[in-house]
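Researcher: I'm preparing a figure for a lab meeting and need a structural model of a single chain. I don't have an experimental structure, so a prediction will have to do for now. The sequence is pasted below. Please return the structure as C-alpha cells so I can convert it later.
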Amino acid sequence: MTGWEARAPFYRQVRGLYIGIFVFLGTIIGLLVALSTSNTFQMSVLERVREFGMLLAMGTDRLQLARLVVMEAIWLALLGGVAGSILTIVAAASINALEIQMPPPPAAVDPLTLSVYLEAPDFAWAILFMTVLLAAATVPPIMRIFRLHVVEALGHV
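Model: Understood. Here is the structure written out cell by cell.
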C-alpha cells in the first residue's frame, strides 16, 4: 500500500518551493532586524559616550561595558519575544473563535473550518533566534566601546 505522499509528488514540490520562499524572506527580514537593531544600539552608545567615559575613568573594565550593552539587547529580545508571543496567542484564539469557513478542496464537498494551531517549541525557537540575532547586532557598538579613549569620552558633547 502506498501513502498519500507517494501518490502526490506535486505536494513535495510545492512544499519545497514554499520552504525556499520562507527561508529567503526570513533571511531578508532577519538582516533588516539586525541592521536596524545595530543602528539603534550604535545611537545608544553614541548618546552615552560621556557615561561610558566616566565609568572607564572610575575603573570599569571595557568588557563590563560590552556586557552591559549585550544584556540590554538580550532583555530587549526577551521582552519583545514574550510580548509577540502573547499577541500571537490572542490573534490565534480570535481567528479560531471566528470559525472561518474555507472553501472545500478539490474533489470535496464540505467546507473546512480554519484553525490555527500553536506549538510551544516554535515560540521558544523564535525567542531564542531573536535573542541571538539581537546579541549579534551589538558587535559594532561594542567595537566602538573598545576603541573609546577616556579623555575624549569625558569631553564628548
